[in-house]
Amino acid sequence: MRGGPDRVVLKEGHTFSLLCLPFAGGSARSYVRLANHTDGWNVTAVQPPAGFAQTRPGLDELARCYLEMLAGDLRGPGILFGHSLGAAVAHRMVQLRSSDWPEDLQVVLSAPPVPGRDTGELLGLDDGGLLAAATRTGMLPDLGTSDDFAIRFLLPGLREDLAVLGSRGWRPAPAAAPVHLLGGTDDGCCPPAALAAVADALRPRSVRLLDGGHMYVLDRPAETAAALTEISTELAAGSAAARAG
Length: 245
Fold this sequence. Notes:
The protein has helices at residues 32-36, 59-69, 85-96, 120-123, 127-137, 147-165, 192-202, 216-219, 221-244; strands spanning 6-11, 17-21, 42-47, 78-83, 105-110, 179-184, 206-210. By secondary structure, it is an alpha/beta fold.
């Protein structure tokens, strides 16, 4: 069960910050394994608001909620990292604050939603049908729990989060921030072809594919952290070049 909204510090570090937005059905604690594979970084995650769906929010409302929670953290050098639904929210946060987005705060959109996909069909399924669809595509992490546990404790948050996308889904467009894309080679929710379509729309600074399915951020935290470290290294190199110039 989720009891947010909240800002959770997962790991205390030095000058570089990693700010994590959860995937559909996820929480701040979903990023503990990723945080453990970072070296010297300060890692902060947001806990989604409990019962948020009762107000019928959209991406704007959730993005504003996270902007307020992270108001003191949105500065560089660092990375704003959103996985799945969190990627769509991160993108909307940039759009809402485009006039003063820090140049040294990179934005990594990881396994983002397929552009324009209506979530209504999924939300119309009964619990058994939604659990089957989420399991088939890898939308839910494999926690080794019973179906009854998943239906009682995982599906409510998943339904709330899917409702955020609504009938219009996510509409990627170029944003006034340094954007990077991550995806999984075997992702059933955002396959490589869909990630390529997102890249065509966003024109990101880089695109990286990691081995694994939709939840590579949980299943392969070391590889995910390594990709983020590469991005941070490129950021540092670019800043040094700019100072030298």
